Amino acid sequence: MLLKELGLASKLLNDFKDMYEYENRLKTFKKWPFIENCKCTPENMAKAGFIHCSNANEPDVAKCFFCLIELEGWQPNDDPWEEHTKRHSCDFLSLTKHFDDLTMEEYYMLEMSRLKTFLVSVNQLILIHASKLECKQELPSLRFPRINKTV
């Protein structure tokens, strides 16, 4: 199970590197439920760093490609930028210029921040699995008091 999740995290890390481009993020919102007369349009969602990653039960799930925050339960008047900033600190949101205008040094610093976020996420995943494993190993060693039934 852990190896499968680590493999998915590795794939996500690789896939998300293309999401620096606004157009790539925007393409993920083809089935986004909020299109017109609202603040959380696909364009605004993509500008705030989100990609659309819905499933059958949750059609409005969006995840930041950079900080990995995942939000659902969007309402038409929700502002993606505001929702993103009030829930999480994200270096992508602090960019003061367009991605294409970054110097190589600025890009590498930004990418190091993104990689750090993924490493922290993977580390948490490993710790969760390690604690589950410890619990399973401790279960057989639990001793329950014997009850002697004397009738």
From TrEMBL:
| UniProt name for this protein | Baculoviral IAP repeat-containing protein 5.1
| Source species of the chain | Calidris pygmaea
Q: Which PANTHER family match?
A: BACULOVIRAL IAP REPEAT-CONTAINING PROTEIN 5.1, DETERIN
Q: Which SUPFAM superfamilies match?
A: Inhibitor of apoptosis (IAP) repeat (SSF57924)
Question: What are the GO cellular component annotations?
Answer: chromosome, centromeric region; nucleus; spindle
Query: InterPro entries in the record, alphabetically?
Result: Baculoviral_IAP, BIR_rpt
GO molecular function terms here?
metal ion binding
Keyword set, alphabetical order: Cell cycle, Cell division, Centromere, Chromosome, Chromosome partition, Cytoplasm, Cytoskeleton, Metal-binding, Mitosis, Nucleus, Phosphoprotein, Ubl conjugation, Zinc
Coarse class of the primary localization is nucleus
